């Protein structure tokens, strides 16, 4: 198999499915080159905007963002509404370098108070009786433009390889890897922080987040992180000095260092309190990233062993499809699990072939039961190597996770079209035709898991 980029290997993605060379070209010349629209759940049952606020206290907004990070927009929205940041919720975090359309809820929000925010088109949809939770969407539709591809003809060979891997001629399939952005695009350390958290290494978790400069960061950021490392190595650390040297735009790092400077850094509880200075969703993301890293490694090992992704083997844990999924979207329902043993292996194989079931691997947590057979051997070996076990996830507050399972294969109808090129300002570009990819994925799956196969580029170029 063709080896993955070193930055991908650092987050557990070891190889590609397709051996064909990439198409080349440029992604994300303009935010409009990467468009994402949530596929919303009918089961949300959004009520009209004039529904009684007592029963439906959450204002639902459909927001189209250009060049906004989801967390940053939520912070700006809460500031404009003079509301706590914790009152703003959403179903899925979207990419900053894109045009994205997604739902938000504002607890206690009033339609008359909705602000105007630059590069944000905000539509009042209605009201809900609860806040949106992470994953409250069916999936996402993508339209991705690759400008000036050098070898556009290679797209056909990649498509053929992915169709064969997925086991369905009319659909492409790829390993359901967590994309690089799950771990931090420029500085992929979120899973490192999470692994320290799960092991109870609170000091190491804070220092991994605040220190450890990387060469792709701005110089002042590197210098600030270097000072954090210096103070951490000192017998008498001065966290005020570290705080003074960390740039103002690193708000989460500054929050942690401020807590250390004010409250001290003598005990595990001090370091945990520092880590808990960040928003609750980021606290959960640390542990989620650790789970995601282990998951990626399990998939890479299964791929390396030549085991199938589109059919079960003895001992695999299989989940069934969500019956309420939008037409054409293969959406796993991980609440309905069954272990494939004996005659069930063949039966489950037929369900998977028809898109009615999926082989899974664990996002490990307190309630995780590992697979049997060779997949179980893979899962245990990865956890042993990371010095983890399910009970380690019985953690305080937002760091606790019961775990779940996730499909190892994602399949989709994919169209690749040739379109006339434009430059970043929308003017005609004489450099040649672009490739435009249209496809949809279930929630939690990453477009980069598909696009990496076509471009064969590093994650910073995806």
From TrEMBL:
From its record, what is one biological process in GO terms? tRNA pseudouridine synthesis
> Which Pfam families does its entry note?
TruD
* UniProt catalytic activity: uridine(13) in tRNA = pseudouridine(13) in tRNA
**Catalytic center at which residues?**
95 (nucleophile)
Q: Protein biosynthesis: present as a keyword of the record? A: no
Which HAMAP family does the entry mention? TruD
Supply the name of the protein. Probable tRNA pseudouridine synthase D
Traced from the root, the source organism's taxonomic lineage reads: Archaea, Methanobacteriati, Methanobacteriota, Stenosarchaea group, Halobacteria
Please name the gene that encodes this protein: truD
């Amino acid at each position: 198999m063709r080896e993955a980029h070193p930055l991908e290997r650092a987050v557990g993605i070891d190889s590609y499915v397709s051996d064909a060379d990439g198409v080349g070209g440029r992604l994300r010349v303009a935010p409009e080159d990467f468009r994402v629209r949530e596929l919303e759940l009918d089961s949300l049952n959004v009520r009209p905007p004039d529904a009684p606020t007592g029963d439906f206290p959450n204002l639902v907004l459909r927001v189209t963002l250009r060049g906004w990070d989801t967390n940053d927009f939520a912070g700006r929205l809460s500031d404009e509404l003079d509301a706590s940041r914790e009152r703003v919720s959403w179903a899925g975090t979207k990419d900053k370098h894109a045009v994205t359309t997604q739902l938000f809820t504002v607890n206690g929000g009033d339609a008359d108070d909705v602000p105007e925010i630059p590069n944000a088109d905000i539509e009042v949809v209605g009201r809900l009786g609860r806040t949106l939770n992470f994953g409250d969407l069916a999936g996402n539709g993508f339209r991705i433009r690759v400008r000036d591809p050098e070898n556009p003809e290679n797209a056909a060979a990649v498509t053929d390889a992915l169709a064969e891997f997925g086991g369905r001629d009319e659909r492409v399939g790829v390993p359901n890897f967590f994309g690089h952005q799950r771990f931090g695009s420029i500085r992929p350390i979120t899973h490192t922080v999470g692994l320290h958290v799960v092991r109870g290494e609170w000091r190491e978790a804070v220092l991994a987040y605040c220190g450890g400069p990387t060469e792709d960061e701005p110089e002042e950021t590197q210098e600030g992180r270097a000072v954090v490392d210096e103070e951490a190595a000192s017998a008498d650390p001065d966290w005020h000095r570290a705080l003074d040297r960390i740039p103002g735009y690193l708000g989460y790092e500054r929050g942690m260092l401020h807590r250390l400077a004010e409250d001290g850094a003598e005990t595990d509880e001090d370091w945990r309190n520092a880590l808990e200075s960040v928003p609750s969703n980021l606290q959960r993301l640390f542990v989620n990233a650790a789970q995601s890293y282990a998951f990626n490694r399990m998939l890479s090992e299964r791929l390396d062993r030549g085991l199938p992704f589109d059919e079960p083997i003895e001992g695999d844990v299989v989940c069934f499809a969500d019956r309420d999924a939008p037409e054409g979207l293969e959406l796993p329902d991980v609440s309905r699990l069954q272990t494939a043993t004996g005659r069930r292996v063949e039966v489950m194989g037929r369900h998977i072939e028809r898109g009615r079931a999926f082989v899974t691997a664990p996002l490990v947590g307190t309630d995780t039961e590992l697979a049997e057979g060779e997949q179980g051997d893979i899962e245990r070996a990865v956890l042993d190597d990371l010095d983890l076990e399910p009970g380690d996830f019985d953690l305080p507050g937002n760091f606790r996770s019961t775990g779940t399972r996730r499909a190892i294969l994602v399949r989709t109808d994919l169209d690749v079209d040739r379109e006339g090129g434009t430059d970043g300002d929308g003017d005609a570009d004489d450099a040649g035709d672009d490739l435009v990819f249209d496809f949809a994925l279930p929630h939690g799956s990453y477009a980069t898991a598909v696009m990496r196969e076509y471009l064969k580029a590093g994650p910073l170029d995806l």
